[in-house]
Automatic annotation (TrEMBL):
TM regions (residue ranges): none
PANTHER family attached to this UniProt entry: HYDROLASE, PUTATIVE (AFU_ORTHOLOGUE AFUA_2G14860)-RELATED, MONOACYLGLYCEROL LIPASE
Origin superkingdom: Bacteria
Full protein name: AB hydrolase-1 domain-containing protein
Species: candidate division WWE3 bacterium CG08_land_8_20_14_0_20_40_13
GO terms for cellular component: membrane
A Pfam family reported for this protein in Swiss-Prot or TrEMBL: Abhydrolase_6
Amino acid sequence: MQIVVSNLLTNYKIFPSPKSKENILILHGWQNNLTIWEKTSYELSKSINVILVDLPGFGQTQIPPDSWDIFDYANFVETFIKKLSLDNLTIAGHSFGGRIALILGTKAKICKKVILIDSAGLPIKDFKSKFLLTAIGFGKPIIKILPKPLSKIIFDFVGSSDYKMAKELLPTFKKIVLTDLTEHAKKIKIPTLILWGDRDEILPITHAKKFKELIPHATLRIVWGAGHSPHTEKPEKFLEIVTEFLEQN
C-alpha cells in the first residue's frame, strides 16, 4: 500500500490481527526495508496488528529531496501514525529505527510502549564500532578492501553483500550517526523493552546496559547467540520475548 507522507510517496504494509485492537509499528534499520520484517510480522499478527513502513530513502519510499536528520525522520513517522490514525500503539525500532523509537517514546500521547532492538542512539566510543559505521557510510567500495571478518560483519549488518548506499543519503547518514540521543532516553516514561543480541559487534551490549540505566521503566532482555539482528538470527526467541512484553499490562 502507498500513501503520501511529508510530500513523499510512502510504502507500507499492514498485517491485521483477527482478535486485537492493539497495534505495533516496526521501524527497520539503515539500508533495510519492510520486507526484512514480513516473516516476523506474520507471526506477531496472530496476537496484534502489525504495521511496517519503508522509511524515506529505503525500499519503495521516495528519497527526501534534502539531507534529513533523525528528527526529520521522527516527524515523518509521527505524521504517518496520525495519517493512519494508529492508537493503542507500541513502537519498535531496530538499529537506526531505534533512534526514531527513542524520540517518539518521549511522547506518551503517541505510543504506550517502546521496543528498542539493538538500537543506535548513544555515542559510539569504541574504535571497532566507529570504524565499522564509517565503512558502512562509505559503502561498497571501502567494504571490498576490508579483511573478510570485518566485511562479513558489515554485510550481516546491512543485509546484503551487494550493499551500496545511495549517494543522496550519505550526508543524512553522517548527520544521524553523530546525533547523541542520551537526553531523549532519559525522558522516556513509558514501559520499554531493550532487546539485544549478546554477540552484536556493531552496537555492543554495553549500549543495552547503558539504555537500561537511562530509561526509568526499562526491561533488558538478551538474546543469547544473536548478533545485531536477533529477529532474523534467533526468530523464535525474539518472538517469545516480544510477545511476552506486549501481553504485559
